[in-house]
């Protein structure tokens, strides 16, 4: 089975622009989560979606939003990009909502100039 | 609130030497603990997990970790490391709702010959 897939792998944007990152979970997994990993740090939780509804949100500004589609894939949107948004964005999936190991994709490297 | 502290930011060792990567956690609820490994330019891979049962958990590539409730620790060990074990290692615990992983800052394991 394919693992978690993310696209694009790399992205360069300018301050103030908008970006959309995409994620396809492992087949059969209904929960998708998004994490931000700044260079040299551990990943920070942004969102969790389960059965197309937001189930958890981390400490990120409203510029960050996400959604989950009927096929359980997900998009992360970031508006009004700042230099500090430069990071590796990781998507993870799990079969159930909570207390189950997360399976991560290889991430999207976002650079904001 | 849950938190994770990885006590060493960098651990340099020689090939075939033993290694221990230390992790302490803080949690007021039932604990589910994980170690993830991240190779350069890749996402996170689950190395091993503690959900319940035996306090000693093992991975397929020779790593093991022991859950110690009294010391609130989940240290990762390997009796003999290989060059290929060079990577970033993250310890993580689920938040109280069980919906998001809280990661430590990571430990860089550098194995040299």
Attribute tags:
heterodimer, A: 7-stranded mixed beta sheet, 4-stranded antiparallel beta sheet, 11 strands, globular, B: 113 residues, mainly beta, 6-stranded mixed beta sheet, 12 strands
Kindly summarize this structure in a few lines:
Chain A has 113 residues and is an all-beta fold. Chain A has strands at 5-7, 10-13, 19-24, 31-37, 44-50, 53-57, 64-68, 74-78, 87-94, 103-104, 108-112.
Principal-axes shape call of chain A: globular
The greatest interface between two protein chains, and residues involved on each side, is: A-B, 25 and 26 residues
- DSSP helix count of chain A? 0
State which percent range the strand residues of chain A make up.
over 45%
Q: Main beta sheet of chain B: strand number and arrangement?
A: 6 strands, mixed
The main β sheet of chain A shows up as: 7 strands, mixed
Question: How far is the first residue's CA from the last residue's CA of chain B?
Answer: 41 Å
CA gyration radius of chain B, whole angstroms:
13 Å
Sketch the topology of chain B as an H/E string, one letter per element.
Answer: EEEEEEEEEEEE
- Rounded Rg of chain A: 13 Å
Average residue-wise pLDDT of chain B: 92
Strand content of chain B: over 45%
Distance between the termini of chain A: 37 Å
Oligomer: heterodimer
Order of helices and strands of chain A: EEEEEEEEEEE
Output the number of helix runs of chain B.
0
SSE arrangement:
The complex is a heterodimer of chains A (113) and B (113).
Chain A: E1 5-7, E2 10-13, E3 19-24, E4 31-37, E5 44-50, E6 53-57, E7 64-68, E8 74-78, E9 87-94, E10 103-104, E11 108-112
Parallel strand pairs in A: 2-11
Antiparallel strand pairs in A: 1-3, 3-8, 4-5, 4-9, 5-6, 7-8, 9-10, 9-11
Chain B: E1 3-6, E2 10-14, E3 19-21, E4 23-26, E5 33-38, E6 44-50, E7 56-58, E8 64-68, E9 73-78, E10 87-94, E11 101-103, E12 107-112
Parallel strand pairs in B: 2-12
Antiparallel strand pairs in B: 1-4, 3-9, 5-6, 5-10, 7-8, 8-9, 10-11, 10-12
